[in-house]
């Protein structure tokens, strides 16, 4: 019985120690951000926010990604709607991401997605994965 209790205590201490080590491996020296949006026009205030955070954070500013998904995903193939935002995003150091699931669901031709926009298989999953890495997240 004593051996069982002692073994259980050792196992619990080992597990908690491993969790603490894993949490310390996340780099909190940089502020990383991810925004999930459903409308291309929302890129205007998102990019202004990115620029302000970059100025405010200084050296602590890390990565800023915007994931576009939803039924209006086709707007990213409209050069009149997206071109200026692509230019502004590049200047601000913001990475634009398209949700492949949304592209498929709403039958958007992936060949018409601008080369500056990365396509991920599932935008919502990608958002959660970034959050697990410590990214600050908001959805609009």
Question: Which shape, going by the Cα principal axes?
Answer: globular
Q: How would a textbook summarize the main sheet?
A: 5 strands, parallel
The separation of the N and C termini measures 56 Å
Whole-number mean pLDDT: 85
Number of domains: 1
The percent of residues in helical segments reads 40-55%
Secondary structural class? alpha/beta
The helix tally amounts to: 5
Q: What is the CA-atom radius of gyration, in angstroms?
A: 20 Å
The counted number of beta strands is: 5
CATH topology grouping: Hypothetical Protein Ychn, Chain: A
What proportion of the residues form beta strands (DSSP E)?
15-25%
Order of helices and strands: HEHEHEHEHE
Strand order of the largest sheet: 4-3-2-1-5
CATH superfamily: DsrEFH-like
CATH uppermost class = Alpha Beta
Low-confidence segments: 11-16, 18-25
Write structural notes for this entry:
- By secondary structure, the protein is α/β, with parallel strands linked by helices.
- The protein has a single domain, classed as Hypothetical Protein Ychn, Chain: A (3-Layer(aba) Sandwich), CATH 3.40.1260.
- Helices cover 49% and strands 20% of the residues.
- The protein has five helices and five strands, in the order αβαβαβαβαβ.
- It has a five-stranded parallel β-sheet, with helices on both faces.
- β2, α3 and β3 form a beta-alpha-beta unit.
- It is globular.
């Amino acid at each position: 019985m004593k051996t069982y209790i002692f073994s259980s205590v050792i196992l619990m201490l080992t597990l908690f120690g491993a969790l603490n080590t894993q949490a310390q491996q996340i780099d909190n020296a940089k502020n990383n951000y991810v925004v999930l949006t459903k409308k291309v026009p929302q890129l205007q205030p998102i990019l202004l926010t990115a620029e302000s955070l970059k100025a405010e954070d200084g050296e602590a500013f890390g990565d800023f990604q915007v994931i576009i998904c939803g039924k209006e995903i086709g707007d990213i193939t409209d050069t009149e709607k997206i071109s200026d935002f692509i230019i502004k995003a590049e200047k601000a150091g913001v990475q634009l991401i398209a949700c492949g699931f949304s592209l498929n669901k709403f039958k958007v031709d992936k060949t018409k997605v601008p080369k500056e926009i990365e396509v991920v298989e599932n935008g919502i999953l990608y958002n959660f994965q970034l959050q697990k890495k410590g990214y600050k997240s908001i959805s609009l």
